Amino acid sequence: MLMIKHIVHINFSITVGGIDTMLVDILNEQCKIARTTLVIINDKIDDTVLKTLNPEVRVIKINRKEGAKDVLKIFKLNMILFKLNPSIIHCHNSNVVNFLVFKKCPIVLTVHDINYSTKSYHKYTHIFAISKAVKRDIEKNGNFPVSVIYNGVNEQLIRRKTEQNNKEEFKLVIVSRLEHVKKGQDLALKAIKNLSSNYKVRLDLIGNGNSLAYLKNLTLELGLNDKVNFLGVKSRNYIHENLKNYDLLIQPSRYEGFGLTIVEAMFAKIPVLASDIDGPSEILNKGEFGFCFKSNNLEDLILKLDAIIFNYTSFYNKSVNKAYLRAKEEFSISSTSKNYINYYKKILK
Predict the structure, then answer these.
(1) Partners of residue 127 on adjacent β-strands
(2) SS (H, E, C) the chain
(3) Which residues 6+ apart lie within 8 Å of 226 measured at CB?
(4) Are residues 166 and 127 part of one domain?
């Protein structure tokens, strides 16, 4: 049987973003099977995220300044790879390959979203897409070897909702970067404004980003200061502990390759309402395991929210258990890790 001796993952940064925290989960699983190393090229590092890594994972920091043309740092990166002598190098940003002179083993890439440049994809031995939607997006731009491996979640870390909230207030949450052009938080705010005359609702936004000022101003303009809370960036532990306290997770994105927070909500047994774009719709199987509204359609978002809030018990009972089973079957972190390992072995044959 082919043994994988050493897996080296390379990324530019490690922050609280979805890609980076997902990478940490994969590393924590793969280190149980093989020697595993994480190489971080830039100095953009959140130590609170690194602390969640299994001690068995070796971490090497190159400490390059973001955007700097630092030849010595690139030389350092390649010398480290030469000494590590990996079985396979797994990159999580397509530009990483342009820094690599060391190419004595297969170099693979995971593409984590749609609408990325495919300029460097031909330099990789193999490409992984986190969803069928991402795979289709890649294949539109060239004939690349692409396989789908879904992102996964560690179910053991997520506290589950065991009963419906009996409080009068209906609590909604959005967990994502504050980037309204892509993530659609502005639609959610406008929908809350429309519904607030009929229901006592509260929306918490977890995350930070370039749209923070815009969204706060919009909240003020809509008169929603007492109904909307900007909670800022929260750790994965916080999210996994507190998702169960909400009645509904909304993901109103205008485009999205996957939607890890949808999977986390499914494991937490709270219903999900997402736009019907490819990534989220793929997770929810077009509304079979949650609820979908027409993308970028405020009227339909309001209509679906109104129906869910008004008939919440029925919607809750209809969705959460089968959504949980779907997540357990398709989106566990152990399955994600095993699928990568199996593909590594195929590539190394």
Answers:
(1) 109, 146
(2) CCCCCEEEEEECCECCCHHHHHHHHHHHHHCCCCEEEEEEEECCECHHHHCCCCCCCEEEEEEECCCCCCHHHHHHHHHHHHHHCCCEEEECCHHHHHHCCCCCCCEEEEECCCCCCCCCHHHCCEEEECCHHHHHHHHCCCCCCEEECCCCECHHHCCCCCCCCCCCCEEEEEECCCCHHHHCHHHHHHHHHHHCCCCCEEEEEECCCCCHHHHHHHHHHCCCCCCEEEEECCCHHHHHHHHHHCCEEEECCCCCCCCHHHHHHHHHCCCEEEECCHHHHHHHCCCCCCEEECCCCHHHHHHHHHHHHHCHHHHHHHHHHHHHHHHHHHCEHHHHHHHHHHHHHHHHC
(3) none
(4) no
pTM: 0.91
Tell me the pLDDT tens digit for each residue of 116-137: 999 999 999 999 999 999 999 9
The domain of 107 spans 6-152+332-348
Question: Does the pLDDT of residue 341 top 70, yes or no?
Answer: yes
Task: Give yes or no for a contact between 319 and 270, defined as CB atoms under 8 angstroms apart.
Answer: no
| CATH label of the domain that carries residue 63 | 3.40.50.2000
- What's the rounded Cα separation, in Å, for the pair 277 and 336? 23
Residue 69 CA to residue 213 CA, distance in Å, equals: 32
Confidence of residue 229 (pLDDT cuts 50, 70, 90): very high
Let me know if residue 1 belongs to a domain.
no
Q: Which residues pair with 274 in a beta bridge?
A: 251, 292
- At 54-76, the pLDDT tens digits run 999 999 999 999 989 899 999 99
Same domain, 160 and 133: no
Categorize the per-residue pLDDT at 1 as very low, low, confident or very high, splitting at 50, 70 and 90: low
Question: 59-74 b/e with 16+ CB inside 10 Å = b?
Answer: ebebebeeeeeeeebb
